[in-house]
Amino acid sequence: MGVDRQFYIGVKALVTDRKGRILVLRKVPRKASDRWKPFWDLPGGKMQEHSVEDTLLREIYEEIGVRKVRIGRLIGATVSNFKIDGGRSSLLFLIYKCRVSEGSELRLSKEHDELRWVSAREAKRYLAYMLPEEFLKKLVIAK
Questions:
Q1: Which of 76, 109, 124, 131 has the CA that lies 20 to 30 A from 141?
Q2: Range(s) of the domain holding residue 138
Q3: Which of 17, 12, 19 is nearest to 102 (CA)?
């Protein structure tokens, strides 16, 4: 008997700076019922009724408070290591290279408690909880 698997589609922003560093955010539980520990992630989230571009812009603004964003090329798609709905559902992410305006002041949402600019090599380690290893190799090359 096969297992039904539900997927949600989401978008992630691989935000880089002039030095080639990647922005990572530490996501924290917001409710007492959240049964997961804090982990590092890229800005982004689930798509709802909006286009990919609108979703990326909305999520980047919500998570780091920046409106001026240049959305670049699609780096690829991957299924997240992180499960939702009690482990019944998976997240399929489309990951785009993005750049925020130089000198933008980053302001974290309540979903996160820390941000860091890390090297591509460090990004592999930071994002290992959320993204599969084979995709992280591609992600780091794409920076």
A1: 109
A2: 6-142
A3: 17
Report d(CA 63, CA 106) in Å as an integer: 9
Question: Tokens 């290279």, residue?
Answer: 97
Establish if 1 belongs to a structural domain: no
What CATH number did the domain enclosing 116 receive? 3.90.79.10
Torsion of CA 96, 63, 117, 39, to 10 degrees: -90
Q: What is the total count of domains within the chain?
A: 1
